[in-house]
C-alpha cells in the first residue's frame, strides 16, 4: 500500500500492525487484541481524515497509482468483452479502450481512458492522454452502438487530451469537439462515470451523457490545478489554491448540478478496496440503465441535450 503525504499517521499505525504481526509469527506471541485495537484506531483515523479532505488532497487521491483504472473496471463489470481498435482513418490509440460486451446481461458498448498501472503499461497507454485518433475511435464506437441500439457506458479517467505537436497537427481540438457532439447526438442511453481524474475537454468528450456519475474522491475540472496555477499565478506552487478555486470535487459538482450522483467509495478511497469501488459503480450503472432503456431514442437525446443546456443557463444566471 502506497500512502499519500496526508496519510502519514495512518501509515505509522499500519506499520505498527505489520510489525506486531511479524513479531507474533516469529515468537508465537498472542497479539490479536493489540492488533484489533490498532486496527480500530486506523479506521477511526481514516474516517476523520477522509471526512475532511481538501480539494488538493482529493486531487492526490484521484491520482493514486493504486486506484483501479478503466481496464480493471471492464474486467470486473463487463462479460465477454471484445475490444475494438482503430479510427479507420489514421491509427489505433491505446489511451482510449473500447469495445462490445455484456453488462449484467445487457449488451453494451463500453469506452474509457486507460492510464496504465506500471511503467510499461503507462507508456503503452500514453498515461491516459488520448490523441485525436482515440477520440475518433470513440465516435466510431458510439455510432456503432446507436446503429445496433446498444447503450454506451463510459469510464472517464484522464489528465486531459495529449497536447503534443503531432496531435495538434492531426486536429486534436476538432476530434474532441466531434466526440462531444456525438455524445450529445446519440439516440441510445449514454451513462458516464468519472472514476479518477476528469481533465478538461479530454474528459467531457466521453462524458456528455444522459447521466454523469462521479466517484466520491474523483475530480472533474476544466483544467488541472497545476495548469490553472501556471496560467493565473505563473507558479506551480499555487496549485493548492487553484484546486480550491476550481470547484473540482464531486461534492462541489453535485451542488452545481454538473453531475447527477456521487458513488460512495470504500473507507480510505477506491485504492484500498478496488473491488468494492468497482461494484458500487456497477450498481449505479445498472440503476440508471433500467430507467433509460425503456425510453425512445428521441426522448433520450432530447433529455441529454436539455440537461447540458440547463447547466449553461445556470452558469449565466
From TrEMBL:
List this protein's GO terms for biological process: fatty acid biosynthetic process; malonyl-CoA biosynthetic process
Q: What top-level class of enzyme does the UniProt entry assign?
A: transferase
Q: Which GO terms describe its cellular component?
A: acetyl-CoA carboxylase complex
- List where in the cell it is found: Cytoplasm
The family assignment reads: Belongs to the AccA family.
Quaternary context: Acetyl-CoA carboxylase is a heterohexamer composed of biotin carboxyl carrier protein (AccB), biotin carboxylase (AccC) and two subunits each of ACCase subunit alpha (AccA) and ACCase subunit beta (AccD).
The protein in question is named: Acetyl-coenzyme A carboxylase carboxyl transferase subunit alpha
Q: Which gene encodes it?
A: accA
